[in-house]
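Run Chaperone SurA through structure prediction, thanks.
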Amino acid sequence: MRSLHAKRWLVLALMGVAGILSVGAALAATPATPAPAPASQQFVDGIAAVVNKQVITLQQVNTQAQEAQEQLRRQNIPLPDYSVLQKQVLQRMITEELQRQEAERLGIRVSDAQLQQAVLTIAQRNRLNVDQLRQEIEKSGVNWDTYLSNVRQEVRMDMLRQRTVDSTINISDAEIDSFLKSQGRQMNAAPAVAPPAAPVPAQQSGPQVLGLAQILVTVPEGSTAATVQELRQKAEGLLARVRGGADFAGVAASSSDGPRALEGGELGVRPVEGWPDLFVNATRDLQAGEISDIVQSGNGFHILKVLTRGQPAQGQPAANRPLDIRQQAPAQAQGPMMVTQTHARHILVKTTQVMSDDKARTRLEQLRQRLVNGESFEDLAKRYSEDVSAPQGGDLGWLTPGETVPAFEQAMNALQPSQISEPIKSQFGWHLIQVLERRTKNMEEEFKRMQARQMLFERRVEPAYEDWLSQLRGGAYIDNRLDPQSNRNQR
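Sure, done. The structure for Chaperone SurA is below.
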């Protein structure tokens, strides 16, 4: 799959104003009197953890723990003991620090122009202009600069995920064919019996959505059989608690190893086909409010709760996690779809600590001059491009609107056939783009395949992301002084 074809876009586009303010309030909320940490955790040097060579201080942990308390209160999630909350917050901070370091290593930056575009998109999706968005944010008590910093960090982390995870997920044509056949069989599988006494309500037609929350007990890579059994017993104990009446979100906040533990374990709402098969099968017979048995994956033991099942509410996006930057699958195609496609090729130079933005741009400016002087685009792409399309001379084939990331598509659309762009920056690096030709085509069948590709991508991206995080942690030096036991479980 062409690495350029991001299935997550650099826009915080699915956040409603309420979601924005909720996140913003969490950033600003700090209790007037900070809750004291237990005496045993007040270290003389104030160091809570060391991540490679970076220190996380106890003060930083306490600040974020207090913010987490306020967020949990607003969500009516039972508060764990403060010492437990500290540990959960610190684990999240360690993961964020590892990602920050990886983004730094890869030279991933968010320019002011990219930040402005993200903020503009948030405003537009909420039917506001930027000034109105700022007013709403500041009404919640959040400093605008703090909010922009948070958006910049979210965009940067999404760029990192696209570079390291999304681009590794390849969906073959054979897999798409199989998926479409299975969907066709399901649609044609209605039994030949008398119709039901009452008509099926109209809202039952169309794609079904599923909302899930999870409690995850992570099993570190290379764990012994005894360790796996110990962690399974831990998961069984947590399952017994939630089935015995304990609040699921509260148990997730205090005990889950999942990245959304402090949001009550909520994973969001998406079409059923977009969840991993493992999750779909485990919750197939469950109704809203019911809890699955323990589900084992390569990452550990999952306990799933069905939050919602059925049709999405009117106007509700199929995936609605706060700060989710995921591009949603388009609506079902209805009849002919005449679309203008572009046949293009490109040369990509990625940025790293060694290859800075300036160096990458300069290299492409030099390559562009060579192209203007008559050298072959195909030959230069094969020699210098760092994209998977390099062996094909940078040829990306026929591109449909929405198939590439916005920065690339905007630059490509501005070109005439045979024209070569100036160096263009995207989250993948710097590009030279040449448009070869354009055509208008009925995309009805391709649209269905694009939907299928997106669904299959959604199934794989979360497990792939968790695997990548696990590998990132496994290759790092982590000294967690609030929870020394976790250090033994890193590798």
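The domain at 207-332+449-488 is CATH 3.10.50.40 (Chitinase A; domain 3).
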